[in-house]
Amino acid sequence: MNSHEPEATRLERATAYVHDYSIPKGERPVYHLTPPTGWMNDPNGFSFFDGKVHLFYQFHPYSDAWGPMHWGHATTEDFLSWQDLPVALAPDMLYDCDGCFSGTAVTRDGCQVLFYTGNARIKTPDGARAMVQQQCMAEGDGMHYVKSPANPVISADQLPAGYLAADFRDPKVWKEDGRYLLIAGARAADGLGHILLYESENLTDWRFASVLAANDGRFGDMWECPDLFSLGGSDVLLASPMHVKDAGPHFHDGYGTLAMIGSLNRERMAMEPRTVVPVDYGHDFYAPQTTLLPDGRRVMVAWMQAWENFIKPKTQKWHGMMTFPRELHVEGDRLVQQPVRELEAAYTDSVEHYGVTITGEAELSGIRGRVLDLEIDLLSLEGPQFVVELARRDRKYVSFTWNQERRIMTFDRGAVGDYYETRHDASAVQSFPVTADGPELHLRFLLDTCSVELFVSGGKQTFTSTFYVPLEADGIAFRADGRAVMNVRKHTIKVPETA
Ligand code: FRU
Question: Is 333 one of the annotated active-site residues of the chain?
Fold first, then answer.
């Protein structure tokens, strides 16, 4: 490099690296957002700005592993094709030098304002080093962002007494009744996660308002990535607890997601949940975030990967992706999720079979593939189990098994044989109790090369997992122990070419 040239900033270096090393889109999933290269975790700043949906994400471009976090950035107008934009934030200030952690985006005076957690290992007065997390702000035009000179806008000193500066993160900001509200996860001295609420008139000066919700120890310890919104007459608080253990049949161990459905007591600014349900039952669903679209839809995306599972093939140079965006509704005590309807614009090669009876094993003509929307109405089952095998080749497959008597659905991604070198699969098999009433069962699977999102009973329950199996394994088979009658509809998904 010419010695007179200024050294590229961390942000420029990241964008240049992405430009040079982007993996062709054809080598990544078709209709799910993936990083152009490297590592992706949580969705951040999911928002509508300047006519487009923006989605930022936790990003480490330089390897397929987590590292100092940047904010990657993409936009879409149809939820099917995404345009990659320059890296939005890099860890380049003293207060965020160890990572620009998760956060949110709001619009003010025609500008897009990002809130994120500055993560920095800071020297303490006694000479030791300690991790400090503080809330920071950056303002931009939808493409380029400048960090606020007022950062951190909520410093660790603004934590109420007893909370730990090392675990204070993931701000979600919105405007309500003429002021801004911000919630973030924070760990109390007893190790449990609480959701703290701050308020501000100008986005820069914040004061602590209340503890919005507190973990009583039932759901893990720290709670990450909170989100709060009103929907269908209820208030819904989302949070992602770490280290869940023995929380009951509806909550798997490890990193989970919670939807607390109830009402926000606006005098005390405290959440009063009438129920707590998992957002998703699968292996690979974490840190969901929502936004409100101009047409009134509340839409959610989540990281479709998990901290515990690193099962991707070593040769794959990207890691982590987003779920397909889901439209949310609250029906009674349920959070109902459906893939956004834009997906239907990508339907091609549709095949339908009605009133098919199977006894034993069957494949159906035209029903195969790895990039699909597949719906099954199981009209009746005389016998104990019904199995759907996906990504099948020879005797290898991933499967969903419906045990009618126990009303349990079990996903198994362990029977894929030696297709890939398993680095670490915390639990290849995962089950959940199906709460659907009546004898019929409606299953809708979104497949996209290496992932499956299952929507049960119109999205009353969902199960999301990844499986990394070569694409030639594209068979789909049905198995009934006994006799099953079903309808099957399949649409291949083909995303229209963009310029
Ligand atoms: C959740 C999380 C957040 C944090 C980010 C760091 O997956 O741990 O709490 O901001 O990831 O990448």
Answer: no
